[in-house]
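User: What would this chain look like folded?
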Amino acid sequence: KSFSLPNVRKVGNKFLAVNTKVNVVDMPELEEIGDDFLRQGTGLHVLSMPSLKNVGHYFLYNATSIPSVSLPNLEKAGDLFFFYCSKLEFINTPKLREIGENALRQCVNLKSIDLPSLEIAGDMFMREHRNLESIYFPVLKTIGKEFMFANREARVVNLPAAESIGHNFMPYNEKISKVNLPVVKHIGKKF
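Assistant: Here's the prediction, encoded as structure tokens.
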């Protein structure tokens, strides 16, 4: 199934939720999405939303077939943003400033993330990845608990603007060889 809604600017909660048959979504004018958009959208392969600015919770939660996503105007994402998108290898959201809890968690094939504007990341952001080797977020200032928990291949972590980091930062990352936190002022209980 393919959904093309060229003039829709806003959708509420549960739009296309628990829909395993949707393969393509094209919504070029969409700016805002409520909670549960394509939650359990296991058939999704292509997503085109170039005007999207804000998404609620559970955006593409368990969308296990999508290989890459580009959301060039996204500024804010809720909790469980791209949670368990197991085939996702690349994500590009250059304007994203704030991301909720459990975002990008268990995206086990993620190889590249482009989040140059991210300032605030919720708890358990980027937990349990297998293929990310280098982490660089140039303006990320506030990081919740369990950031980079069990990212087995990570070798380099560069967070030049990080000021506050929650507890359980970077456990189970045996291959880390370089960490850069030049302005950090607070780290939680475990490091």
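The CA atoms of residues 150 and 163 lie 22 Å apart. If you want, I can go into more detail on any region.
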